[in-house]
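Running this now, will post back.
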Amino acid sequence: MTSIACVTLEVTDLPAAERFYTTAFELGGQVRLRASQAPTTGFRGFTLSLVVSQPADVDALVDAAVAAGAAALKPAAKSLWGYGGVVQAPDGTIWQIASSSKKNTGPATRRFDELVLLLGVEDVRAAKQFYVEHGLTVGKSFGGKYVEFATGSAPVKLALYKRRGLAKVAGVSPDGTGSHRITIGGDAGAFTDPDGFAWAPASQTATL
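Update: finished.
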C-alpha cells in the first residue's frame, strides 16, 4: 500500500515558519519545511487538516495558531458534521482544524489524531484513477466530488476534493497561480500528478 510519510511546505521565510509551526502545532516529522522563492498567488489548491477528538481541542489549536501569527479564515463553530475552524499560517498554508464531536469529554489539549492532506483537483475521477495506478487504495468515494484513500497507519492521510469546493470550505477564492508550494513525501517514487502536485521519496525532503 502506497503511503505518505510527510509533506514538505515550501516557505519564503524559513526561520519564521519554523518558529510558527513549533509554537502553534508541535507537528514533528509529518510536516517538513524548505526555503523557496517559487512564485505563487492566491489559493494553492490544498489544505492540511488536523483532526482532533473534541471542540475544546479545536479551540486550543486555533487559539495557539492565531497567537503565533496565523490569520483566522473561519472562526471555530459548530456545523452539521461537528466543530471546526480554518486558519492560514504566515507562510500561506491553509489549515483546517476539526472534530466530529460537538461535545467536550475532558480538558482541552493540543493533541491531534490525524493529519489529512486534501488536494483540490479539477477532475476528481481522473485524479482518483491516476493515484490508483500509482498504488493508492480507495477507502471512500463519492462520485466526482470526494475521494479518501485508505492509507492505514501512515503519518499523513490523503483525500481529493473539487478545487472550487475545497476553496469554499477554506473560506477563500479558488483563484490562484504558480507553485503549489508543497511536496508530498512517500514511498511511491517521484512524479507529478495531473494537477501539478509533486511527489518525492520522503528521504529526499528536508526535515523540520
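The chain is about 20% helix and 40% strand. More later if anyone needs it.
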